[in-house]
């Protein structure tokens, strides 16, 4: 039997929040983006340097308005040269969908709004270790670039590491019932529930 570890990452220059918290939000949406020219679209239209994405799961922080801290910033994760996943605020998703729809005549691209998925954000000094333990991940990657992010699938949950305003955060994405189970688990581990829009 072969052991195949599921790698996970965190940012080497990001700080941990003082309070271990779980931020529930219905503000973020997931868009699965694909096509034979998906990489070309990301480079030419959104201006991403995809040479930084050297492995599946690596991602980039981007923005639709020039402000990486606005509601129009997003994370895009690479699954392959033709398949990506965006996690972004609802208002940014509307602008991105319009942009993709406008460019579909030029590029072989398509997207699926993953309305079946929900998310929450975990932060705090215990967040990384709690995620690694709960999902049986291998903590082997350190991201030094704040514009890089990382996501991996563990069972039914997509788990990401992002640097938001120099603070390490982890976003968990899953179907609603599965996510509820993990929210209850993390609250039982001492993460304080915060309701509202994501930070």
Summarize the SSE layout with pairings.
Blueprint: E1 7-11, E2 21-25, E3 28-34, H1 38-44, E4 58-63, E5 73-80, E6 83-89, H2 90-103, E7 110-113, E8 117-123, H3 127-135, E9 138-143, E10 148-154, E11 157-164, E12 167-175, H4 176-188, E13 192-195
In short:
With 199 residues, this protein is of the alpha+beta class. The chain has helices spanning 38-44, 90-103, 127-135, 176-188, and strands at residues 7-11, 21-25, 28-34, 58-63, 73-80, 83-89, 110-113, 117-123, 138-143, 148-154, 157-164, 167-175, 192-195.
Describe this structure in words.
Helix content is 22%, strand content 42%. The protein has 199 residues and is of the alpha+beta class. Strands 7-3-6-5-4-10-11-12-8-2-13 form an 11-stranded mixed sheet, with helices on one face. The termini are far apart.
User: Strands of the largest sheet, in order across it?
Assistant: 7-3-6-5-4-10-11-12-8-2-13
As residue ranges, the low-confidence spans are none
- So what's the overall shape? globular
Total helical segments: 4
Give the amount of beta strand, in percent.
Answer: 35-45%
Structural class: alpha+beta
Sheet having the most strands:
11 strands, mixed
Rg (C-alpha, Å): 16 Å
What's the helix-strand series?
EEEHEEEHEEHEEEEHE
User: Termini distance?
Assistant: 43 Å
Quaternary organisation: single chain
């Amino acid at each position: 039997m072969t052991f195949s570890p599921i790698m996970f990452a965190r940012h080497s220059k990001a700080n941990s929040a003082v309070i271990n918290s779980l931020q529930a939000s219905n503000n973020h949406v997931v868009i699965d983006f694909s096509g034979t020219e998906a990489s070309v679209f990301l480079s030419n239209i959104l201006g991403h340097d995809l040479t930084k994405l050297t492995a599946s799961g690596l991602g980039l922080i981007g923005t639709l308005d020039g402000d990486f801290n606005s509601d129009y910033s997003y994370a895009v994760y690479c699954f392959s040269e033709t398949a990506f996943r965006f996690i972004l605020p609802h208002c940014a998703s509307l602008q991105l969908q319009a942009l993709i729809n406008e460019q579909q005549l030029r590029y072989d691209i398509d997207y699926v709004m993953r309305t079946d998925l929900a998310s929450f954000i975990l932060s705090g000094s215990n967040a990384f270790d709690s995620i690694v333990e709960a999902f049986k991940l291998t903590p082997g990657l350190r991201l030094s670039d704040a514009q890089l992010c990382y996501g991996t699938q563990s069972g039914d949950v997509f788990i990401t590491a992002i640097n938001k305003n120099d603070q390490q955060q982890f976003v968990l994405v899953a179907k609603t019932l599965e996510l509820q189970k993990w929210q209850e688990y993390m609250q039982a581990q001492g993460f304080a529930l915060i309701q509202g829009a994501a930070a």
